[in-house]
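Archive transcription. Copying these from loose printouts into the bound notebook so they stop getting lost. Printout 1 of 2:
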Amino acid sequence: MLFSVIGDEVASGTTGKGQDDMASVIREVSLGVHPDAVWDALRDWGAVHKRLVPGFLLDARVDGRDMVVTFFDGSVVRELFLGADEEARRVAWAVADGSLGLTHYSAPAQVIPDGAERSRFVWTADLLPDDLAGTVSGLMERGLATIKEAREERV
């Protein structure tokens, strides 16, 4: 079964192969902040808990290329840094272990210019098992609301 969550809609369908596919969750928020300022906070891998999502992440400890993060509810997750693209203003990571029960999670987040002084922050997550899509979507929405509040407050 293929599940996609885009906006507030959940659509499901089959791939025709008879196999389960991962869920894809796409969320975005419009920010009244210049894209360079948002990108600067996103790419600061070891300080996202202070600069991008304060309160959503309580702590972030860099361990080599990885980061061990503590969420608002006390859950701890090891995130693997996959890469950053300065030109595209995009960071990608995966979850190596955590308490949600995910067997796979990979995500890019991207800052896209939206006019002269505005941005769109787009976060996509591919995950297994697909029945966790609703939970992950809710966490992403909370994270994006935190980004909006934190970044627009600094303007």
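Printout 2 of 2:
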Amino acid sequence: MGTKTEALLADEASITEIDELKPLIAEGQERGILTVERIATSLEEVEVTKEQIAELHAYLLDQGIEIVTAEGKPTHFFTTSEVRKLLLKG
């Protein structure tokens, strides 16, 4: 039998299956780049867990989608204040 965390994760939708995130993912795939602010705005529109935020980050990187600041500078997704606020909310 799995742990409680594994059971909770099994019940969560994959980030690629969340309708509110599909436009964000499509935009990233088309442009090859997303700003942290754009990602944060999309995440505010849907209830996601910390694990789903981590899954989204990994998925975007796996797809070769660069994550940048509003100024266009490469950034580490989880160090930005916008994403930290979302992580604390969950």
